[in-house]
Amino acid sequence: MKQKPTWLLGLVGILLVVIVPLWVLWPKPNAPKDDPWANLPEHAPHVDHSAIIQGPFETGQDVTKTCLSCHPDAADDYMHTSHWTWDSEKAFNIPGHDEPVHLGKMHSFNNFCIGTQGNQRVCMTCHTGYGWTEEAPADLHNPDNIDCLVCHADPALYGRGPYGDPAEGVDLVAAAKSVRNPTRDNCLKCHAYGGGGDNVKHGDISSALYHPSPDLDVHMGRYDFQCTDCHRTDDHHIKGKLINLNYTVEPDEQVQCTDCHSNAPHQDERLNEHVQSVACQACHVPEVAEVVPTKIYWDWSTAGQDRPENHFHYLKIKGSFVYEKNLIPTYAWFNGNESERYVEGDPINENGITYINKPAGSIDDPTAKIFPFKIHRTMQPYDKVYGYLLAPLTAGKDGFWTNFDWDQAFRLAEPHTHLKYSGEYGFTQTWMYWPLTHMVKPKEQALQCADCHGPDGRLDWQALGYPGDPMEWGGRFDNNQ
Amino acid sequence: MQRKLVSLLIFTALLAVMAAGVTLGVHQVLAEEGSTPEVTPSPMHPAYALLDADGIPVIHSGKPADMLKTCGQCHDAEFIATHATHTKAEGIARYEGMTEACFLCHSTQPNGLARQLALADGEKEWANTAVLLGSGIVAKTDDGWVWNPDAFGPDGKLKPDYVNITQPTNANCAQCHGVVHTDLKTPLIIVDPLDPDNWETLTTGQVVSPQRISASAMNIEGKADLQYAWDVHAERGLQCVDCHSSANNPSARRYAELPDYLTYDPRHPSVGEYLEKPDHVLTQENCQACHDPEASHKDWLPYLDLHMSKVACETCHVPKLYAPPVETYDRTVVMPDGVVNKAVLRGMAPVEKTPPDAPEVEPITVSQLITGYQPVLLKNKDGKLAPYNMVTTYEWVYEKDGKTVLVSDEDLEKAWMPDGKTYAADIVAAFDANGDGKLSIDELSLDTQDKVDLIAKRLSDLGLKNAHIVGNVVPYAIHHSVVQSDYAIQDCRACHGPDSRVGKAIELSPFAPAGVTPEVDTTDIADHGQVVNESGVLYYQPEQNEALYVAGHSKVRWIDLLGILAFVGTLLGVLAHGGARVYFAKKLGYKHHHGPTKREYLYTGAERFWHWLQAVSIVGLLFTGLIIHNPDLFGGFSFRRVVFVHTVLGWIFAINFIFAAYYHLSTGYIKQYLPKPQGLFNRVILQAKFYAEGIFKGEPHPFKKTFWDKLNPMQRLAYFSLLFGMLPIQLITGLWLWAARIWPQLATLFGDATMTWVAAIHTLDAWMIGTFVVAHIYLTTTGETPFAYIEAMITGWEDVEVDEEGEAAKAA
Fold it and tell me: For the whole model, what pTM was predicted?
């Protein structure tokens, strides 16, 4: 028995002699692997509210009051977000304007349904609050008007009608009992239908993302990501901004691929070199709208005619359209900001295209990268005398969608938009750039060299400012430039 | 009724319009008349005059253009014509005059088809002009060839818009060399797999396209997973001329051997000199011209130099081809449509039995399921294994003026179809197996001597003497359709496994005309394999090269057999012996001899440590070695990892062995392992008798142990052979196998088969050591108690038997 420690020592020694060299010499993977999973936020499990919530509720506001009784700070937090204000958090210095300008859905124009003012009946179905009508401007200081349910209730149990009030017949108690962390279903209810229909506006956000295939979107399809996995929230402030309504966005306010992925994620050094001039999306979002077509052209000038209607080609209330499926993006330099933004009352470009927005950046801007966009082109109304874009009253009472009378629609809009209508209108072409960043494909489907480089490439190198294909002529940071 | 009629009318009208469109389209390709070309004119090349053979501008003479005269105005046409790769094509009728067909390779819109038609129509002098058809420069009318006056300026030179000279693009090369598909938007499809103008595709299945295979419109098995380009170089933007460039092009890198102290030689022709005398012998760059395989493989590929010296890059980087090349041309028969084009494609799923209502001639199309094929690995002229397709052709030859010449298609057609449309009656009688009066493609086979004789006789009736069938097999090397590195072969077991690619046979032909064994053309290979006939199907069995020992795949059969026999025999032997011991112990009811014992210190700490470390490493080595030897039996292990563990354990074993050797020598303990020759035989007999008899009766061991003499005579013999034989041999052969990855010359130290024998000895010795381990472990149970000896090896102390005198016994 005395011997025991000695032979144990021997045993340990032998094991060490065998295991240590194996362990030390074991082939290590070449480079530390990019581990995006480590960077994903962990969502706290949501408390089941079905036992907590007690009815009855007469109105949406009643539900909100109940929510706020336990979450008193939520209202104040929420009322500072653009989901609520429909206004940018700050004012921007936009060329051509002496004063800083606020942008926001509340008043800014786009080249889809043009403006929300006076059209609250329809537009407010996507505002996350109650009681904002044409006659009664929103009481944005009354916390009871917040609609908690639109983001937190199971959309199968909750729906909204005109002005965003709960739809008739909705069981508010059942809806309130179902609250949870927002899912894709909640966000897509509005964000997939911008511009008046499924995938009309974004191109990269459609109803197909409710149940996406892995091939449509690798994050949401293969790994079932929720919107809030990337758009992280902090006291109801949701990361990620739509550039169209912000003019400039600080990099840390925006969702970046590098929030989770490394900045040099490829095995091939040459691909990693691309990262300094090419946005991830340029290769990894090779196309969008594979399932639901997206609108790329809208001609308001043909609206109001009695001719056969079809969602994809012509509607009397809106005019004629062109939709595209499998949209190949347009590529432009983009530093995350805009170089142009049309502000209501701005003069249009009478001799050509008026840009509602335009990405900022050029080959000379080291922070800019080549980025994929959808361009939405529209023939939309303007005032021939004052030379600015007009936002007609459409959904509002006696608006264009009711009477099909442009003059009346512009006149009725005057008190809402505070833009005078001279009595003479025309149609002018406007362009709007929509950055494409969702519908990221699995890496096997990312673009390959020949998709951009070589005789059949999809990039116009000279238009981007290169002397020729950088594969042959070198990149903008190469010494030989 | 009315409606039906209207639809029918509309349908007919549509058909007519479509037909007209197609006809018009075809017409336009062949004879486009003076339309303005939709081509960006050459930005570099100056305007020039097209000259005829007399040196007169063709627009004045109306004669065909003479390329040597035309291009010779500035370039040294004679130099080009005599320094050209494409002279090889001159012997082929359809490519006649290639070396003077400048536009074929240098026009942005070459019309190679029109050139071939001109040659076929006997308009040889117009052939090179025909290449310009469709460019708006020349047109073919009913009155012959007409130069378009609008394309020429008053000075007789082409207007700049019509100067469409380019450096050869992929499209130029694709006219003759194979399927090149650069259009990313249109899914790739190969319409006619037998098109001789797709030569490389036809012979090997190589396709040059940046498109992903998964995007192809063809019906390819498992296509969805083939998400990589047909050819990685095309996908990376390379053009044919990047690797096949003019040898003296100053802008192309040159790889001439330079002295060590130079990295670049700036002396080369100026651009001007080059343009005057551009060498048209195109380079055939190998992979190393651009790639440094050592840099990309050194981190993971074991035996780098050995692999590089034995395996061509293409072997792993062109693992499989997904366009179907030809496997067999049967040019002995005439198809029902009167043409000699019976062919079997490779890499296609077998077609279900032809339905009875199928058309007589099953067209060879790619609409069937394409499975792709793995090329056969043959030893090339560099002595490396490289991928090939092998194309077998059967054809009729006859004697003419003492020479053997091919029977022409026309003669063969006459023999089969005297009237040019239907088979001769005696042929139908002989070939129509199912008696339906028609010949199907399956029936069209000269599978019996009678059928061969019949056709031979019909040929001889046409005056062709001694007509007989010959077969030849041509191996076609594969260098294109390289896949992205992620999809190259990286699994060691592709070669180092039971289903190894190395030495794997390839089907040559699913049938063979009676009595014909095709000859393999070995012009371009150094492989000396053989054609094997397995119940009518011919295979090529590549050279079974014993010099090429592929670990995990190659085995010397008798060694394994011998090893297994020794191992299993010993195992059974000790089981039987042990069983008998238990049986007799019970039956006789004896207790083990309990003489006086004395506790003796037998094993020093160092000895015990050495023993157990050796035990662990040997068991580990045997186990990992078994996996490396038979990877197929242990599919769950990573071959690469197991080899790694084996190597590390081998080093631990080796170092332990050396330390132990030093220890035993320096202490003199080594003595106990040396059998004392005097009376050895008798002592061995005594010990053997004990194991055969005494042990069953509970007799005491014949020899007593002491510290200086712990081994009985049999043990001494066994341990002597282990320590001075088996283990050092294993050590040396193991080190040899390992060191060959660093010093490849070790692999051929004793000739090409060195590694085979080193590996075979290593294997045999492993079996012997394994056998030793079994016997050794069993014999540890023969002590006082079954675990007494093991315990002694752990603690060092053992209760050894002593003589009556109480002294430790000493073996005589």
Answer: 0.78
